[in-house]
From TrEMBL:
Annotated source species: Roseovarius marisflavi
Region forming the signal peptide: 1-19
Keywords: Signal
Protein name: Acetolactate synthase
Record Pfam families: DUF6497
């Protein structure tokens, strides 16, 4: 089981490194780049976390519709399309979008960041309330 986990981790690292160079044009007009993909097994099962950075991202309630559209886009057109190459089907995908890179799990008041959770059914991202 440890070998399978190591292989999955190496596969994710290779995909993330290649994707960091790929700019994704979001519906809001911002360009996002993949920072990293993390896996964990919270109480609800396997989850993949796709962390993106978009310079100029400001978040906020005024831009709520644009943020929702960007998050849905990243899940549906990026994350879901890469699931077959990553490994087992997760019970949840978490998409995060920030204005700059940050260390996962470390609070940084200078970073503007949002995140949303999705389940996947028949290749479609379905928003999940936290």
């Amino acid at each position: 089981m440890r070998i399978a986990g190591l292989v999955l981790t190496l596969c994710l690292a290779q995909q993330a490194a290649a994707a960091q160079e790929e700019a994704l044009l979001l519906p809001s007009g911002l360009e996002a780049r993949l920072l990293e993909v993390l896996t964990d097994r919270p109480g609800g099962g396997l989850a993949y976390r796709f962390r993106f950075v978009a310079e100029g991202f400001t978040g906020g309630e005024a831009a709520l519709e644009a943020v929702v559209a960007d998050m849905d886009y990243l899940c549906q057109t990026y994350a879901v399309t890469r699931l077959p190459g990553i490994g087992p089907m997760p019970s949840r995908i978490v998409i995060s979008l920030a204005d700059r890179p940050s260390e996962f799990g470390v609070f940084d008041p200078e970073v503007t960041q949002v995140f949303e959770a999705y389940s996947v059914q028949d290749g479609v991202c379905i928003w999940e309330m936290f």
